[in-house]
Amino acid sequence: MRIYFFITAAVLLLGSCYSTRDLNYVQSDQYSSSKVTAFHNKRFIYEVQPNDILSIRVQSLDPEQSAFFNIENVGGGVMFGAEASMFMSGYSVDEKGYINLPIVGQMKVSSLTVDEIQRLIQKEINKYLLDAIVLVKLVSYKVSILGDVRNHGLYFIYNTKATIFEALSMAGDLNLTSNSTNVKLIRQIEDSGYVEVLDLTDPKILVSPYYYMLPNDVIYVEIAKEQTVRQNLPILGTFFTGLTTLILILNYLDNYNRN
């Protein structure tokens, strides 16, 4: 009986231990601190797609003239949240890839980068205003982080060069039960969706085309299978304890009846 309890306690103790093997990011025995800096990733430049929202502001020495090109900030950011306010005061790219800019008219912006759109609009605004400055930002840059993270949800990114690690940090990082070697990234490019399985423990993630986030990316973090087993060990321990107790009682009753 005592041996059984010692074995059960040992199993439960081992089951509650966590290994850092599948938890630590960017693991390798083949690089030193000097070699880490050698990793290089040419960032994928995002091209605007239909349904994106652009913030376009025109500034000049004559505010009354530049006001014709600017959409008023609906609600003043008081009744609406920051993201909702930007959505209401932004330019939505239609299904054909166009926006409708006051006075200028329709402009094709899909398949262009934000910098290219800014230069294109600047060229058009120069026809109407002198010394005007055009500012273009992508305000529909959001990612969804789901699964075994501390704070899953929808997050808006205000950095055009956000990495997958920065995105996960917004969600409070992975839990100890997370499987960092099998993280799914769901990405929408035009009319097609792609699912890529990423190993966050592999240094090659730094040069992966999925290292930098794109608008509307979805990150799904699975719980590790071995962690699921560990979580079930206390239940199994309780079950076997009860089963052993029942066997002992039945054995005692059987011996009692014989005597």
How does this structure look, described?
With 259 residues, the protein is an alpha+beta fold. It has helices spanning 2-15, 33-36, 63-66, 82-88, 114-125, 164-170, 225-258, and strands at 53-59, 91-92, 98-101, 105-108, 133-138, 142-147, 153-156, 178-189, 192-198, 218-223. The protein is elongated. The two termini are 23 Å apart.
Give me some keywords for this one.
22% strand; alpha+beta; wza like fold; elongated; Outer membrane lipoprotein wza fold like; 32% helix; five-stranded mixed beta sheet; disordered N terminus; 259 residues; three-stranded antiparallel beta sheet
Provide a quick synopsis of the model.
This protein has helices at residues 2-15, 33-36, 63-66, 82-88, 114-125, 164-170, 225-258, and strands spanning 53-59, 91-92, 98-101, 105-108, 133-138, 142-147, 153-156, 178-189, 192-198, 218-223.
Strand and helix layout:
Elements: H1 2-15, H2 33-36, E1 53-59, H3 63-66, H4 82-88, E2 91-92, E3 98-101, E4 105-108, H5 114-125, E5 133-138, E6 142-147, E7 153-156, H6 164-170, E8 178-189, E9 192-198, E10 218-223, H7 225-258
Parallel strand pairs: 6-10
Antiparallel strand pairs: 1-2, 1-5, 3-4, 6-7, 8-9, 8-10
Q: Share of helix among residues? A: 25-40%
What is the succession of H and E elements?
A: HHEHHEEEHEEEHEEEH
Number of separate helices: 7
The tally of beta strands, per DSSP, is 10
Tell me what the CATH architecture of the largest domain is.
Answer: Roll
Low-confidence parts: 1-7, 9-14, 31-40, 74-80
